[in-house]
Each structure stands twice: as C-alpha cells, then as structure tokens.
C-alpha cells in the first residue's frame, strides 16, 4: 500500500497544550513507523523506547496517548500492563496495546479498567486507524482542514471502522423495559394485550412479563453456526459478516453447555479479524449484551458470557422462531 503523507498542524486538547504520545516497542522498525505516524497525525512524541523502559520499576511520566507493542508478554509484562491500565484511568490517558493472538487472553485480562484499543497482529493501517480513533475521542482537537485527496484516502482507511460504527449507532440502551424502541439493543414488550392486567389502581396499566422460555438445545445452536460457516464456502463471507450475531450464537450454546468462553475463542467464533472482533466485544459489553467475568483462579484472565438480559432476548427469539416453524408445518 502506498504511504500517504497527511499534513496536520500540531494537535492539541481543549487547554491548548499539545497532545503527547509515549511509544514502547522492542522492534526498532515498528517504533520508527509509529513515530512517523504520530508525527503525521499532528501529535507530539514524548518518548519512544523499548519495553524494558516501560517495565522499569520507577514510575515514569507518560503521554496522554500510550502505544505499547507487547506480542509475547511474560509475567513482568502482564504485571506492568495491569499497572499501566490503572494509571491510564487515573490520568485520563488512552492506551493502544498490540499483541499476538496467542497472548490475547493474557493482555485482555490485564486491561480491565481503561478500555484500551487492543490490536491483534495488526498491519500498519490498523495502527493508523487506532490513532485516528484516539484522536476522535479527544475533545476540542485542533487539526488543519484536510485536502480533498487526503479526505478520500482517510475515508478508505477508516471504511471498516465506519461500517462498525453505523451498526453500533443503532444500539440504544435507553429504551425502558416493556417499551418498544426502534433502535434498542433489547426489545422487551408484551406479546399481546392478554399480558396487561389490572393494577392496584384499577387502570389496567400494569405489565406482567411473560416467563422467559428455556434457551434452545445447544445442538440446534451449533447446527446454525455450522450452517452459517458453510455458507462462506459458496458465497463471499465478507458480504454476510455479522460478528455480533455469530458471537451471540456461540455464547448462547456455551451458556446451555455450562462452558466458559475465552476472548480468543470468541474472536475466532466471530468470523472476522481479532482486532475487529475486539471492537465488537467492547461495544457489546458497553450496551449490556455481554458481561466480562474475571477468572477466580487467575485474576489476570477474563471470560466473556451473555448478560442475563441477552440470554432472555436469545431465549425469546428462539421460542418465537420455533412457533413460526410449527405454524408453517
């Protein structure tokens, strides 16, 4: 891919101070690329060094944006990431942590508080997108107006992120239980007027929820998952990528089977690249579809499971499509 030069003025936060970036990576070539991309984004490089500098015992001042490449973290690295995660929350800093698929569970477990962007074996373009997303989160950021060519190039780089954002914008968790919301992540409503009964005032406005049906047989859910994967053998899988649904199906089956699902396993189940899957997981946690559950035996690990509300929604969904199937038979 041709490297495009973006020309920005120095980016600053609302107070007018330049946004500083700290880079920690053992690969000198990677550090060089990151330094170039940080400069191109109009950010100010505070420091750039290897992981030993970050892992040093002394607490060091850090930039408002901290980029760490940690492909194979050992025990010291994981402990440092945990401390960095806590510091980022206290200082209001933002983190981008890149790692390997083999180490994803360990890194995910260490970063429970700051909601960093975790990249898995990322190419350079994904690192650029991550910087762009961080810039978008900074209020009152001052960047020079892009030229039309720069704008089109940036649009191509962020197209994938844009598709994700469009879907997530449809998720709205502000809808009340018992009310229908066109954009809600959950849509719980009375299935018929027969569930609206008299309340204490005699107005008939009380709403009694229909008891939740049981979750479907795990074998049925696994069959649906296999069918969805088979489709990709004959049709372009990218055209039908639906990572949120694939993950909900996988977690539904796991809940019935009393199985715990690691973040790595869930990324694989999503059918999309791990970095993309992680963005979905974080957003689905934010809207209440998924829960992050710490491992009691190892606090550095975490699992992902359906929230109770999501389990309720999946149970009702499968019950309804089962009724539709019986009506057609």
From TrEMBL:
What are the leading ranks of the lineage? Bacteria, Pseudomonadati, Pseudomonadota, Alphaproteobacteria, Sphingomonadales
In Swiss-Prot or TrEMBL terms, this protein is called HTH marR-type domain-containing protein
